[in-house]
Amino acid sequence: MEMTQPCTTVEPSVEALKAGDEQAYRRLFEQERDRLQNFVMKILGDHDEAENIVQETFAVAYRQIDDFRGESKVSTWLFSIARHLAYGHLRKTKRHTYREHETIELLQAERADTAAMTLEAVEAEERRRIVHDALQELPDHYRRVVQLRDLEEKSTAETAEQLGLTEVNVRVRLHRARKQLREHLCERMDAC
Which of 110, 137, 147, 175 is the most exposed place for a label (fewest CB within 10 A)? Predict the structure, then answer.
């Protein structure tokens, strides 16, 4: 009976990458492309955009390889770049999408019978906008934790895994983020 050996992939050496060895880059790309694609796909939910982010990740890594300090594996560094680019993309598209929806809602509101808009609906919309703005003003690392835990209702463990943090760190960030949100909302809503 023939025994198969486990598949072990060896990352190209940092020295080879820093020397601009095309074979080393090609091997790194082939080894990590699919894992990066899956990782980014989970964040974005869009196959085409995930492909773009993966391509951009390798381009950034190529340009910044001299900045790589070797304190982690190259693959870990790549995932860090990909995560940063993916969340940056999310921020840009969500702001853009929010503005588009806001414009569409304004146009629809103009066409709608003005009497149908009650004071309650206007206040609810204003509260939603204030909460959205407060979330956007949080630092990225806090906003992402709030998004995963409170909006997407992921567990602390899932959030920690997705963000590459410890569960303790997730809980600390969530506590601090909620505190900042509360302060921000108190200022804007005069409710505290």
Answer: 110
Asked if 157 contacts 174 with a C-beta cutoff of 8 angstroms, the reply is no
**Residue 130: CB partners within 8 Å, gap ≥ 6?**
185, 188, 189
Domain extent, residue 192, equals 118-192
Q: pTM value?
A: 0.46
Does 192 share its domain with 171? yes
- Nearest-angstrom CA–CA distance, 6 and 36: 21
Q: How many CB atoms lie within 10 A of CB 122?
A: 11
Q: How many domains is the chain partitioned into structurally?
A: 2
Write the pLDDT tens digit of every residue in 134-161: 888 889 999 999 889 988 889 999 999 9
Whether residues 108 and 124 share a domain: the answer is no
Could you read off the pLDDT of 90-149 as tens digits, one per residue?
A: 888 775 554 455 555 555 555 554 444 555 666 677 777 888 888 888 899 999 998 899
CATH number reported for the structural domain that contains residue 161 in this entry = 1.10.10.10
